[in-house]
Amino acid sequence: MHKTVLLLALMLGFLPLDDASAQNVPIENVQETPLEKKVDDSTWLILGGVSRHTCRNCGFREDNPGLAVQWRSDWLNNKFSYTGNDEWRMSAGAYINSNNRNSLYVAALWQPLEYKSEDVTLKTGVQVAIISNYLKQAITPTFVPAISVETKHVGADIFLVPKFPSVSAAVLLSFKVRF
């Protein structure tokens, strides 16, 4: 388990968080950013979610409590943005998975398609993640379609999860808040 935590920590620190670190600017030349600018309105607290599996009599857990953080990835947006929107987000956290086991994960969410109304934003794309403790492997890579529905303070992410050897196909709905 400690190797899994170490791998997740390594991946979280693997990508530079801002342009200054991406350009190897000496630390004495980097201006301090106030805390309110470091944690802005693009940072979400994910409060877990629910899942609905195609195998209705397989005994999968469908309430999946957890805690995670989702934030805009300035580095990925600067390097790989195709629309100029905030297309890329990162997330990391823990939850109780459908096999009733504790899972840790780190993910990159790319959502290039966006529709905004006055009060609601709808985004679609894909999420690439590594998740611990699902299959017989220590780490499971995933690539799933994703839809986000967001208002100013609450939102939801919907993921379409394909069938894996030990888990049936499912729809996952996670809930998130920002302050």
Protein architecture, described:
With 179 residues, the protein is an alpha+beta fold. Mean pLDDT is 82; it is low at 1-22 and 32-39. It is globular and about 40 Å long. The protein has one domain (2-9, 41-177): Porin, CATH 2.40.160. The protein starts with a helix and ends with a strand. Strand 6 (121-132) and strand 7 (139-150) form a beta hairpin. It is built from 4 helices and 9 strands.
Mean pLDDT: 82
The CATH class is: Mainly Beta
The biggest sheet amounts to: 8 strands, antiparallel, barrel
Q: Low-confidence segments, ≥5 residues, pLDDT <50?
A: 1-22, 32-39
User: What is the element string, with H for helices and E for strands?
Assistant: HHHEEEHEEEEEE
| Rg over alpha carbons | 17 Å
Instruction: Tally the helices.
Output: 4
Query: What share of residues are in beta strands?
Result: over 45%
CATH architecture: Beta Barrel
What is the rounded distance between the termini? 33 Å
Kindly state the number of beta strands: 9
The percent of residues in helical segments reads 10-25%
CATH topology: Porin
Number of domains: 1
Spatial order of strands in the largest sheet: 1-3-4-5-6-7-8-9
Derived from helix and strand composition plus strand pairing, the structural class reads alpha+beta
Shape: globular
